[in-house]
Amino acid sequence: MTTLTKTIEGAEVRLDGVLALMVRGQDVQLRRVIAGPISAERDVRITEGGCGPVAAGGNVEIHEGGCGPVAAGGSFTLSEGGCGPVFAQRAVIGDRGTVGIVVSDQVIVEPGATVGTHVPKATALATLIGALVGGTVGLGVGAVFARRR
Q: Which residues contact 142 (CB under 8 A, 6 or more apart)?
């Protein structure tokens, strides 16, 4: 295994059998790679590898691998692997795939797959807005009571 000690950047990044600290590109394809965070303008495909958080403007596909949290502008597909929380337009969790939380309006869980919790995007957004508003109001009320002392 080759160790890379810097960020890998490029329009189309294809890596095979390496260790990378961070990967950034338009399209990223990793095979037998261990990487830190991945950022792609378009698609990410991981086969037989793992990485940290993934942010992609397009689709994310993982086969025989795993990663940290995923934010995909398109669809997310996982088979024979595991993943942290997923935020995507559409999610397909295939055979022997495991995901803790999926935030998506369309989730397909195939036989042999496991999804801990599925939350529709609208519900997640409403919860986030409620938490922000509640926190802001709570800080404002706390500040008023603190001045009275």
A: none
Distance CA 34, CA 50 (A): 5
Report which residue type is found at 57: G
**CA distance linking residue 28 with residue 25, whole number of Å:** 6
Give the closest residue to 103 by CA, choosing from 95, 116, 114. 116
What six digits make up the tokens of 20?
């990378």
Is 0.90 surpassed by the pTM of this model?
no
- The model's pLDDT over 9-46, given as tens digits with 9 standing for 90+, comes to 666 677 777 777 788 888 999 888 888 899 999 999 99
How many domains is the chain partitioned into structurally?
A: 1
| Strand ranges of the sheet holding 34-35, from the earlier edge strand across to the other edge | 2-3, 18-20, 34-35
Q: Domain for residue 64, yes or no? A: yes
How many Å apart are CA 30 and CA 117, to the nearest integer? 28
Q: What's the one-letter identity of residue 87? A: F
- Mention every residue, 6+ apart, whose C-beta is less than 8 A from residue 130: none
Q: Is 44 exposed, middle or buried (0-12, 13-18, 19+ CB in 10 A)?
A: buried
* Contact predicate 56/43, CB 8 Å: yes
Segments forming the whole domain that contains residue 6: 2-120
